[in-house]
Amino acid sequence: MATETRPRPYVRPMPATWWLHNRYLFLFMVRELTAVFVGGYALFLLLLLYRFAQGPERFHAFFENTLQSPWVIGLQVVALLFVLYHTVTTCNAAPVLMTVWRGEEKVDPRLIIGANYAVWLILSLLIILVAI
């Protein structure tokens, strides 16, 4: 008795660099990568708060031994650039992610983007005022 063979489904090969061939997909993937740095920086801030809660001596020791290292300062600059890119792309994507209606018509997307940047600016200024 012969065994019946079924045809195998066609699986199109997908190279690992598929996202490098389209500018918009590349920018999207970079934005997704920045989320890793945003999360890592959030963990770093939690570590900083933990050291601060341990007392001034432990915090100053951590500051002098770790935070003044050139590697850590370099990572801070890279994280800042990635966080800024992530924030700008999130603010610009807000009209796509949420639709705001005013009565029967949609709110202008530029108004939503402008409101996001205004809130970002106000919160940044408040944080600077509190830190000073």
Characterise this structure.
This protein has 132 residues and is mainly alpha-helical. 71% of the residues lie in helices and 3% in strands. The chain has four helices and two strands. It has helices at 23-53, 56-67, 70-97, 109-131; strands at residues 101-102, 105-106. The chain has a two-stranded antiparallel sheet. β1 and β2 form a beta hairpin. α1 (23-53) runs antiparallel to α2 (56-67), α1 (23-53) packs across α3 (70-97) and α3 (70-97) runs antiparallel to α4 (109-131). The radius of gyration is 24 Å and the shape is flat. The mean pLDDT is 89.
Brief sketch in words of this structure:
With 132 residues, the chain is mainly α. Helices cover 71% and strands 3% of the residues. The protein has helices spanning 23-53, 56-67, 70-97, 109-131; strands spanning 101-102, 105-106.
